[in-house]
Amino acid sequence: MKPLNDTVSVVTGAGRGIGREIALHQARAGAQVALMSRTQSEIDETARMIEAEGGIALALALDVADGASVEKGLARVVEGLGPIDLLVNNHGAFRAFGPIWDCDPETWWGDVEINLRGTFNTCRVVAPAMRERARGRIVNLVGGGTGNSFPHGSGYAASKAAIMRLTECLDDTTRDVGVYAFAVDPGLVRTQMTELQLNSEAGKTFLPGIQDLFAEGVNIPPARAAALIADIAAGRFDALHGRLLRGVDDRDALEQEMDRVVETDGRALRFTGLTQPKL
Fold it and tell me: Of which family is this protein a member (predicted)?
């Protein structure tokens, strides 16, 4: 029996890159996968790839920043495939490069809205249904700037740091019934998003470090994050709910150190050296 048989999975941003790889891994592990993206042709192609391997896929074009569209889309998933067991928020935008005074305000805010509001929109629909069933896992993708300064990618960084905190807050409201939320950083992967950073004039000007990293051969295969998320979906890393896992992690080593991570409250957004009130 495959580890994700009888699992209904939703993957946003599933039309290409990391999201497509995540969806393929879910399907190969036995899940029925709902694919979401703004571009119908891209998710249709992912669906064909899954179906060619004998899997089941449902392709739904929608804008995750549109709450009503998300509600309708997720209702269609439940109607067509059944209750949702796994939600993977992989959608993302990073188009505003440079110090904030050089960024177009609408572009900067658009990155935040797609990344953060889109994640909020999907979670607010799926999480209560998972609570009712006392079953489910939610994986939110984060990235550069989540836990450190990213001065020329401030919109992306601000949204990803917010998603990390949202993940922690969400997990604190669902873990009591065994519904767990996780953050995953896939690492630096060559995608359409990073191509914009590499090839646009703004990217070349403000993000030369990205150019250097790729020139040095840093390019994490998307299969690393996809395999990690498949393991999360199967329950392997439940002890690390509410925390950050990375595509570059050695999964066997990570499993061995889970108790230590929990004991030291690691892999989370925390102030250091300050006593915080318990809310």
Answer: Belongs to the short-chain dehydrogenases/reductases (SDR) family.
Q: Is 84 helix (H, G, I), strand (E, B) or coil?
A: coil
Residue-wise pLDDT for 204-252, tens only, equals: 787 777 777 767 777 789 999 999 999 999 999 999 999 999 999 999 9
3-state secondary structure of 32: strand
Question: Cα–Cα–Cα angle for 125, 126, 131, nearest 5°?
Answer: 115
Of 143, 259, 193, give the one whose Cα is nearest residue 17: 193
pLDDT classification of 2: cutoffs 50, 70, 90? confident
Domain 8-190+222-259: CATH superfamily is NAD(P)-binding Rossmann-like Domain (3.40.50.720)
Q: Which sequence positions are flagged as catalytic?
A: 156, 160
Which residue intervals of the chain are DSSP H helices?
17-28, 40-52, 67-80, 105-112, 118-133, 154-174, 192-199, 201-206, 208-215, 222-233, 251-256, 258-263
Model pLDDT, residue 155: 96
What are the pLDDT digits (tens) for 159-176? 999 999 999 999 999 999
DSSP state of 272: S
Query: Among all chains, which residue has been given the structure tokens 């029925």?
Result: 32
Q: Give pLDDT tens digits for 8-32.
A: 999 999 999 999 999 999 999 999 9
What is the DSSP pairing of strand 8-12 with strand 32-37? Answer: parallel
Q: What is the residue extent of each domain of the chain?
A: 8-190+222-259
